[in-house]
Amino acid sequence: MTSGNESAGGRGRSRAVTALLLAPTSAWYLLLLIVPLIILLVFSLGARAPEGGYAPALQLDNYLELPTRATAFFNTLWMAAGGTMLCLLVGYPLAYYLATRAGTKRTLLLVLVVVPFWTSFLIRTYAWMTILGNQGIPAIAEGLGFGHIALINTPLAVMIGIVYNYLPLMVFPLYVSLERLDKRLLEASKDLGAGRLATFRQVTLPLSAAGLLSGAMLVFIPIMGEYVIPALLGGGKVFFVGNALVDLFLQSRNWPFGSAAAIVLILVILFAVTLYLRLGSRAGIQREVSIL
Amino acid sequence: MTAASRAALDRAGPWVDRVFRAHATLIYLFLYVPIGLVVLFSFNAGGHTGELRGVSLRWYDYALNDRFAMGALQNSFVVGFWTALIATSLGTLAALALQRVPPRVRAIFDALTYIAIIIPGIVIGIATLIFFVNLFGWVNPWLDYVWTAAGLGAPPVIGKGLHTVVAAHVLFTMAIVMVLVRTRLAGMDRSLTEASFDLFATPLRTFVQVTLPQLRPAIVAGALLAFTFSFDDFVIATFVAGPGQPTLPMYIFSSIRRGITPEINAIASMVLAVTITALVTVGLVYRRQARQAGETAAEPLALGIAEDA
Fold first, then answer.
1. Is B66 touching A (CB cutoff 8 A)?
2. For the whole model, what pTM was predicted?
3. Closest-CA distance of chain A to residue B273, Å
4. Taking CB atoms and an 8 Å limit, are A169 and B305 in contact across chains?
5. Structure confidence by residue, pLDDT tens digits, B174-203
6. Does residue B100 belong to the interface with chain A, where contact is any CB pair within 8 Å?
7. What ipTM does this complex have?
8. Which among B309, B164, B297, B169 has a CA at the least distance from the CA of B221?
9. Between 20 and 30 A from B26 (CA), which of A205, B92, B131, B215?
10. What is the tens place of the pLDDT at every residue in A247-263?
11. Is B36 inside any structural domain?
12. Distance (Å) from the alpha carbon of A250 to chain B's nearest alpha carbon
């Protein structure tokens, strides 16, 4: 670089240019991320104003009141964990197939997994409302003599919506790590007399751990903040923290209580991310971690 | 895959292959049947989703003449366009600047970028709502005071609108653009830049003629992602959109809440058609470029997978 020849004035100017280039982004982060998060924290310690909104106070009442919304937190956590697990169970064999056996159709099949992800999230969820709704599968089942079954507005419907929407996010990182896997290791394992399952457990699975962790994170975190799927497919019966937040901020306008719920949600997510980074660095997958 | 490993797999028995293929087929059906049904019912002549009564384009006609739906569509395009433009320019500039700052500054920026990406859309919606309500509560009385003091008549009132949606969308799409461009910068050949300087090109000229062309795939992918996320976003817009100015997802959501009408199927099918056409076009363009540059065609699509707000 020419920096060695630059005069002191030139360096000063270049520093000014750098600062100028960073200024808009910094302003955005400061005003729309840092300041709001601080306000959120302050609000969570406040009281609800009589007409809704925020009244200054310094108390922990909002946090102490959170157990009344325990169901929402419980639903969110177990469905996020369960949804991640299901995506993994369904997605792993597909990723494995794509990475090792799909042959010439591989690129096309891979693109086909990703395309739904680029289409409207809302429309994808809406599509299931008709299928699971009373004129959909339940009507067909009744026609076949299975009696009446309820699908829409059940946890099962929400779970189907979750797997449907988030599966691509799981398959892709898994595919990347499986594709990178050195196939000679599998052959070596077979040559050394390991069976199919032993090879999978001792070679394939550990070597795809990076993709597995990334996929789990990419799926788990957005489900934690999910609102649309439980609203449309859970019909108010399966309630997530996201639904509680919309209710508290836009309907009942209890901002301080909503802020406390939001802060706890953020803390849970940060905890999950920290855990992921720890596990990631233990598995020696710094590269994947930095990609997240 | 080598011939030897292929042979090793075949030795293991074709039934394993068949099981994998059946599983994959089921997943592709699972992924595409629901979308296919939405498109199928959009051509329904009847008034109810679920029972087909002949083929017609009446719901397309209905949707295209629906003033509210078209207004919402326009709002979404406006928001998506400005989000993509602002997020791509600011994100790219910041990524370039971050190459030249002390490590500590870079670490702070990285942390903020990851927070902006990781935080769920719903929290971004709440946080920006709180910020704007506070800001307007502070600015509007002040404007009122100035206007009254200057005798200018009725003071302007700043409130929520499409601009607040753009501001919120830019926050996290800018972060995505930054990650993409920085990844690209890290993999870039520095010797070209140095050669350009050695040939006495000015920094600006080096940027335009050497750096920018190399960054183009990342910038295009970033802009595309920013537009898609913005166009697709429902949760953030719900919090920060102004009254009477819904985006398309907001319109669709409230229509669904009022009861499923075939009009939604028609709108959804049109949105799908536009998205898929755009995807195929971009995919083909990238494939042509990738053939020249020796990269995988799936890369720009794959990049999208990094984030879903």
1. no
2. 0.85
3. 9
4. yes
5. 999 999 899 888 877 777 777 877 888 787
6. yes
7. 0.85
8. B297
9. A205
10. 998 888 899 999 999 99
11. no
12. 8
Percent of chain B predicted with pLDDT > 90: 36
Range of the domain at B187: 68-125+161-306
Task: Say whether pLDDT at B1 is over 60.
Answer: no
pLDDT in tens, B112-154: 998 898 888 999 999 889 889 889 988 888 888 888 888 877 7
Measured CA to CA, the distance from residue B16 to residue A20 in angstroms comes to 59
The full set of domain ranges for chain A reads 3-44, 65-291
- Residue B261's Cβ-side half-sphere holds a number of Cα atoms within 13 Å equal to 17
CATH class belonging to A65-291: mainly alpha
Q: What distance in Å separates the CA atoms of residue B64 and residue B58, rounded to the nearest whole number?
A: 10
Q: Which of A1, A18, A113, A123 to mutate to test the interface with B (most CBs of B within 10 A)?
A: A123
Q: How high does pLDDT run on average in chain A?
A: 85
Identify the closest residue of chain A to B109 by CA–CA distance: A26
B252 and chain A: CB distance < 8 Å anywhere? yes
CB of B207 within 8 Å of a chain A CB? The answer is: no
DSSP letters of chain A? --GGG--HHHHHHHHHHHHHHHHHHHHHHIIIIIHHHHHHHHHHTSEE-TTSSEE----SHHHHHGGGGHHHHHHHHHHHHHHHHHHHHHHHHHHHHHHHT-GGGHHHHHHHHHHHHHS-HHHHHHHHHHHHSTTSHHHHHHHTT------TTSHHHHHHHHHHHHHHHHHHHHHHHHHHS-HHHHHHHHHTT--HHHHIIIIIHHHTHHHHHHHHHHHHHHHHT--HHHHHHSTTTS--HHHHHHIIIIIS--HHHHHHHHHHHHHHHHHHHHHHHHHHHHTT-HHHHHH-
Residue holding tokens 């009244």?
A55
| pLDDT the model gives residue A183 | 77
CATH number at residue B185: 1.10.3720.10
- C-alpha gyration radius of chain A: 25
pLDDT given for residue B300 in this prediction:
42
* Alpha carbon distance A229, A9 (integer Å): 57
Indicate yes or no: CB of B8 within 8 angstroms of CB of A187.
Answer: yes
Instruction: Say how many domains are in chain B.
Output: 1
| Domain presence at residue B4 | no
Q: Does residue B101 sit at the A interface (CB-CB below 8 Å)?
A: yes
Q: Is the pLDDT of residue A150 over 80?
A: yes
